[in-house]
Amino acid sequence: MNFWREIPKPIIGLAPMDGVTDVSFRFITAKHGGPDVVFTEFVNIQSAFYSPHTLIKDFTYSEIERPVVAQIYGRAPELFYKVAHIVCELGFDGLDINMGCPSRKVAASGCGAALIRAPELAREIIRAARRGVEDW
Ligand SMILES: Cc1cc2nc3c(=O)[nH]c(=O)nc-3n(C[C@H](O)[C@H](O)[C@H](O)COP(=O)(O)O)c2cc1C
After folding, report:
1. pLDDT tens across 21-35, in order?
2. What is the number of domains present in the chain?
3. For range 95-109, the mean pLDDT
4. Atom of ligand 1 nearest to the CA of 100
5. Residue 21 CA, ligand 1 centroid: distance in Å
6. CATH assignment at residue 34
7. What is the whole-number distance in angstroms between the Cα of residue 39 and the centre of ligand 1?
8. What is the pTM of this model?
9. How far apart are CA 22 and CA 125, in angstroms?
10. Distance 129 CA to ligand 1 centre (A)
11. Has residue 62 got a pLDDT over 70?
12. Nearest CA to ligand 1 atom 15
């Protein structure tokens, strides 16, 4: 099922915002604002894979947020594949790959908006994430 087809139009969504859309903000917004779709803050794939603490902190959500989408960023296709499994296992309704963050911290390491300069890698990342979801 593709939830984008099921939710009411025009869609009012809670955009992903680093340092803002954390677990409590998302819960309060879902409870009082009721957006049609909710995104987590972006989460680095290294942290998501190697640091369970980060994973629990950033990828905790409540049922009232659904549909809820996990946003991730990085530049290693094989980790996108593995983290896609984690996102599925945690029960998210979608996985969003950040390719837009221009902040120096993110783009200088070749992630986020920097991927526009590496279209081959961007394609590999998308394919790896998709495969991760399909193989799960
Ligand atoms: C503080 C802040 C943090 C953001 N963090 C993210 C992020 O983690 N991932 C992302 O895709 N966009 C991020 N964005 C971009 C927003 O999701 C949104 O696309 C942007 O603010 C434009 O939407 P607007 O025209 O409604 O303001 C961030 C924006 C702000 C202001």
Report:
1. 999 999 999 999 999
2. 1
3. 96
4. 11
5. 10
6. 3.20.20.70
7. 10
8. 0.95
9. 25
10. 22
11. yes
12. 17
Nearest-CA residue for ligand 1 atom 4 is 17
With a Cβ cut-off of 6 Å, ligand 1 is lined by 15-20, 41-42, 71, 98, 100-101
pLDDT at position 59 is 96
Question: Which amino acids are annotated catalytic?
Answer: 101
- CB-based contact 74:47 (threshold 8 Å): no
Task: Give which of 69, 72, 52 is closest to 129, Cα–Cα.
Answer: 72
What residue numbers bound the domain in which 83 lies?
Answer: 3-135
Q: Are the C-beta atoms of 100 and 73 separated by less than 8 Å?
A: no
Burial 88-107 (b: 16+ CB within 10 A, else e): beeebbbbbbbeebeeeebb
Residue 36 has pLDDT above 90, yes or no: yes
**What type of residue is 88?**
C
